[in-house]
Amino acid sequence: MRSVSDGPHPVCVRASWRGGPATYPRPRALLTLATAALALGALVGCSEVEDAVRDTAAEAGCQVAQEAVDGVTSQARQAVEDLGADPAGAEQELRNLRDAVATAADGLSGEVGTHLDEAEAALDDLVTQAEAAADGTQVDEAAVESAQTELDTAVDELTQVC
Q1: pLDDT averaged over 10-residue windows placed end to end, the chain, 162 residues
Q2: Torsion sign across C-alpha atoms 47, 114, 95, 93
Q3: CA 117 to CA 109: how far, in whole Å?
Q4: I need a surface site. Which of 25, 36, 114, 129 has the fewest CB within 10 A?
């Protein structure tokens, strides 16, 4: 431990001023301290900025995903109901729904992207059945029901995530 008789601290400079001797921090020591404080503040600030950017990106991803799947289950069900009356029209409607979901899924990752990919796969299965109907082939009702269930599940899980 240093005592007063040891003289000024090595980080400090002694200067005489009107009232007598005074001790001031050395400029180099102040600069080092200021640099360290600034670096620490920048690290804390970066962390906060990264968190804010991550949160904003997640919110934007959810918004894109929600817009892509908004009403997709009911529109897909309507297209499936129309398979008997207008298979070509139902096929085109299902393709449009699948393509819209695929476009939204392209830029998204994580859980949101996964659920959009699941919805796209279910719609692709429905397109396959609609193509069969348009070609005059028997529609696999079990495959249609399974694809609709998968679509409902993917959309519900996406809604829960967002």
Answers
A1: 53 49 46 48 55 59 82 91 90 94 84 92 96 90 95 92 84
A2: negative
A3: 10
A4: 36
Return the closest-CA partner of residue 158 out of 56, 63, 42: 63
Query: Token digits for 91?
Result: 């096929």
User: Tokens representing 8?
Assistant: 């000024």
CA–CA gap between residue 41 and residue 117 (Å, rounded)? 41
**In the chain, where does DSSP find H-type helix?**
27-69, 72-81, 87-106, 110-134, 141-161
End-to-end CA distance of the chain: 59
Please list, in sequence order, all residues whose beta carbon lies within 8 angstroms of the beta carbon of residue 138, skipping any fewer than 6 positions away. Answer: 132
Contact indicator for 134, 98 with CB cutoff of 8 Å: no
Measure the CA–CA gap between 12 and 16, rounded to whole angstroms.
13
Amino acid sitting at position 96? N
DSSP lists the bridge partners of residue 121 as none
Q: How many CB atoms lie within 10 A of CB 60?
A: 12
| 59 in Cβ contact with 112 (< 8 Å) | no
Quick check: pTM over 0.85?
no
